Amino acid sequence: MLSIKNLHASVEDKEILKGINLEVKAGEVHAIMGPNGAGKSTLSSIIAGNENYEVSEGSIELEGEDISELAPEERAHKGVFLSFQYPVEIPGVSVTNFIKTAINETRKAKGQEDMPANEMLKLIREKSELLEIDRKFLSRSLNEGFSGGEKKRNEIFQMAMLEPKVAILDETDSGLDIDALRIVANGVNKLKSKDNAVVVITHYQRLLEYIVPDFVHVLMDGKIVKSGGKELALELEERGYDWIKAELA
Amino acid sequence: MELKDKLISSFMAFEEKVDTSSSLHDVRSAAIKNFETKGFPTKKEEAWKYTSLNAILKNDFSVFPKKENAIEFAAVKKYFLHDVDTYKVVFVDGLFSSFLSSTTHDGLDVCLMSSALNKPKYKMVIDEYFNKIASKDESLTSLNTAFAKEGAYINVPKSKVVDKPIEIIYFSTGNEAALMVQPRNLVIVGENAHVQIIERHQSLNSNPVLTNSVTEIFAQKRAIVDYYKIQNDVQTANLIDNTYIAQKQESRVAVHTFSFGGNITRNNLNFYHQGERIDSTLKGITIIGDKQHVDHYTLVQHATPNCESHQNYKTILSDSSNGVFNGKIFVEKEAQKTNAFQQNNNILLSDKATINAKPQLEIFADDVKCSHGCTIGQLDESAMFYMQQRGIPKKEARALLMYAFSNEVIESIKIPELKQRITKIIATKLGVNLGFDL
Q1: What is the CATH number of the domain that holds A230?
Q2: How far is A213 from chain B (nearest CA, A)?
Q3: What is the pLDDT of residue B20?
């Protein structure tokens, strides 16, 4: 589904990713863990097409098609979704209007008509219930004055609406209390299927108790230095990252 | 001949046509004298530092149209709020068009300034209100006063809630090579009365037009006035809009100015408080490009205790356009417990666009709340990426952000049809169709 080969990227001439290889198949959940500054968020931004980073080498393929030259919205239309670590506040645009625009622009790009209003309403109702989102919440300005938990729930709500092929969850657990974490994880699990894939980027093992990964990768200094099963996450939780550094030295 | 000389020499001819024996003769004479002394303002004056009239004054403007010009309703329908019934006071090249208008004397007066100035039954009202709040010092207002003859006259009696909006529209046909018009409006809103007014100046072709308009608005006790100015004129139209508002106790007056077009637009908007617990609102959205120039020069004179004023001006500038915001809040010593707020946010979409923003607060009372905030910036890059990530293309994402930026002001439009219209004009300006109203 998502295939990243020898990806090198830099920002302002500073190389941040130094040859990433990652193979994510349909139906799989991958976790990427690593210490601060390892390049985790950079990787997710680059997959989504953030133009502030320069890809100097390597490729990003989605279902066999190289997407590394595409604009962010074109990648989104093809099914890439990024749940932001820090969702941006957009005062004056309601959650509902924003998601309507996002869905209809995606349909437009695929040559489809706008989604009929009643169908849209039904979908919004269904998905907001899944994330236990109150109806009043939907008419509020996007992310403005939202609590950390509300922001993250809103991200997963949008993911549920857009039904991406590959969802990258960047530190979705940060700022969440245990109840919100459960709701968010439950939402993600319900959306998981054999036809899509999830990449969870996280610091802590906590989220992985709820969203159980098939593979865990350790990202350090711009490279994936170790991969394993879900038990690797537990080991990292217990022992930190120093032992991996030692192994590598 | 220079425009100033032309105007002064036409004054005598003008006075011969109107009634020289009336009490207005002295008012006009004093006004032309003031204009003669001061002339057109130049950039040397502090109030005109960022706006130069020099280039437009070089046009050989006719100061009176040579003949009456008629226009078909179908050709101008789009400039009206045609999906809803309204009172209409319409002028073509400065002259009243009864054909396009829909005036009334039934329960309120929505009619012509020329009638009000000439007919004896209005004399008392004219004596009490005409030129009473307009500046006698400012040269362009004086110039207008000297030639004041035609415009809209609106008198809403006590406790009258006007059943539909009133539209005041000034069309220029362009049948003159270059035309100067000087409309004069008088609006009196009685105690507890409520009125909604929309004012628009519109050229129908590209011959230069200079409009020097003066509007006096008197809001009596507890009166509510919602006044909307739509400025979406062609590239060769210039507008100097002078508005003077006197508010009595507990009245609420809101003026919204939407500046989307024209060559040079200068808005002088002045509020004077004459009672307690008054509420004044001044809001504006300016979206311009090319070499367009829009200057908002506002004054709120807090002279009485326990009053509020709210200013919120949003500007989006592209290409080589220029924006100016000069917001003056004056709080006199007696005006204790004043709440005065001013917000001015500007977005520059091009390196060549400029904004001059100048908040001016002069506070002489010691127990007041005054705040002002001014921002100048570009569109938020991280917000752009966020929206694009959700599948919204760059152009639409930009438009959505700009809508969102203007939304605080759009939201407070009280006439739903007008709100839709403004939203549509903005969408057209941004070249998008978002399929919903924010």
Answers
A1: 3.40.50.300
A2: 24
A3: 63
Listed by number, the residues of chain B in 347-386 with a beta carbon closer than 8 Å to a beta carbon of chain A are 380-383, 385-386
Q: What is the distance between the alpha carbons of residues B375 and B56, in angstroms, rounded to a whole number?
A: 31
Locate the chain B residue with the closest alpha carbon to A109. Answer: B391
pLDDT at A35 over 90: no
> What number is the ipTM of this complex?
0.95
- Residue B434 predicted with pLDDT over 70: no
> Is residue A124 a part of any domain in this protein?
no
> How many residues are given for chain A?
249
Contact A21, A59 (CB under 8 A): no
Residue ranges of domains in chain B: 3-275, 382-438
Q: What's the pLDDT score for residue B335?
A: 97
Residues of B in contact with A100 (CB under 8 A): 435-436
Residue B205 is given by DSSP the state: S
Per-residue confidence (pLDDT) for residue B313, from 0 to 100:
97
Whether pLDDT at B438 is above 70: no
Which residues are CB-neighbours of B16 under 8 A, at least 6 positions away? Answer: none
A71–B438: do the CB atoms touch at under 8 Å? no
Of B300, B60, B268, whose CA–CA distance to B180 is shortest? B60
Which of B379, B382, B389, B394 would you mutate first to test chain A, the one with the most A CBs within 10 A? Answer: B389
Strand-strand pairing, B109-112 and B152-156? antiparallel
Say if residues A165 and A191 touch (Cβ distance below 8 Å): no
From the list B394, B396, B404, the residue facing A90 with the nearest CB is B404
pTM: 0.86
Distance to chain A for B399, nearest Cα, Å: 11
Q: Residue A68 and residue A48: Cα distance in Å, rounded? A: 9
Q: With 60 as the cut, is the pLDDT of residue B437 above it?
A: no
Asked if the C-beta of B407 comes within 8 angstroms of chain A's C-beta atoms, the answer is yes
* Closest CB from A81, A97, A158 relative to B436: A97
d(CA A11, CA A30): 25
Nearest C-alpha of chain B: how many angstroms from A114? Answer: 10
CB contact under 8 A, B391 and A102: yes
Q: State the DSSP code for A58.
A: E
pLDDT in tens, A113-166: 999 999 999 999 999 998 888 888 999 999 999 988 899 999 999 999 999 999
> Which positions 91-110 of B are in contact with A (Cβ < 8 Å)?
none
- Distance of residue A139 Cα from the nearest chain B Cα, in angstroms: 11
d(CA A62, CA B316): 38
A165 Cβ under 8 Å from any chain B Cβ: no
What residue in B sits closest to A168 (Cα-Cα)? B389
Answer whether residue A186 is part of any domain: yes
Which H or E run includes A20?
Answer: strand A14-24
A93 touches chain B (CB under 8 A): yes
Which range marks the domain in which residue A40 is found?
Answer: 2-91+149-248
Strands (E) in B13-54, as ranges, are none
**Would you say residue A136 lies in a domain?**
no
Q: Can you tell me the distance from the alpha carbon of A175 to that of A168, in angstroms, rounded to the nearest whole number?
A: 17
CB contact under 8 A, B396 and A91: no
Q: Looking at the complex, report in whole angstroms how far the Cα of residue B374 sits from the nearest Cα belonging to chain A.
A: 17
Among B245, B200, B250, residue whose Cα is nearest residue B224:
B250
pLDDT of A13 over the 90 cut? no
d(Cα A1, Cα A26) in Å, to the nearest integer? 6
* Partners of B355 in beta bridges: B323
Whole-angstrom distance, CA of residue B389 vs CA of residue B258: 32
How many domains, chain A?
1
Q: Is residue A118 one of the residues assigned to a domain?
A: no
CA distance B346 to A43: 34
